[in-house]
Design a protein that fits this description.
This protein is about 45% helix and about 25% strand.
Amino acid sequence: MAEQKELKEQQSQPLAKRVFSYLDTNNRKVKLTITAVRQFFCPTATDAEAFAFIQHCMLLRANPWLRQIYLIKYDPKGPAQIVISRDFFLRLVSSMPNYRGMRSGVIVVKKKPIQNEIAEKVAEAIESILENYTVDEPLRNELVEVQLYCQKQSIGYEPELIEIEGAVIPPGCELFGGWCEIYLKNPDDPTRVIAIKQRVMLSEYNKGQATWKTMPATMIQACAERQAARKAFSEVLGGIYGPEELGIPVTPEGEPIIATVLEEEEDILEEETEGVDRASSEGVD
């Protein structure tokens, strides 16, 4: 009854003054206001963007004070982006009721040797002519040059795409992209699973930033995981991206590099919201 009364009182407040309370995945009570979002997380966000961010926090039970979810807006004229951290993303995916596992890795290009039979036969025919027939020196020299050229062309190479599990690039291979496969419970047959697979290209995501230069395999693997998860759980993760996908600088752990939120700031918000709660209960505007 007390919770229902508190909810009713909050709903009667103007949106800008309303305090939104919920429990995060650790069952810790979180309180957010539009003012707090703009003050501590994204100063350039509009009221609508701050409100949408709070709704996502509540839906995902994500705690922005613990750096599980971010609202990022570098351009005041552009739209704000909601980003969840890599650790929270993996925890969120694994908690889905129909989730049955995930595999991911990188796609590399390897030069596959191929036999050029025509060039090989031409080289063999010239060898036979030189051994069995007498030819003058200029013609012999020209035939030898043609023979050497054909011998070089007798073995060529064509690119072969190989999927490797994990962020590992074997010697002699070039990184091309990433892949991820998420397994879901099959509602029609409990003994089988449904596989949702996604492949992404390195050239579409590589922004040339420090982390992309030092650990490109890890970064593109993370992008593939994010895309596959959005496809598998679109009703929850639709419209939520990772910093790797948006060109946002990240740490080696995959966390976005933005202004940090201090614990004492959360304490300030607790004091503010407690004051709003008391005012609401006393009927003070």
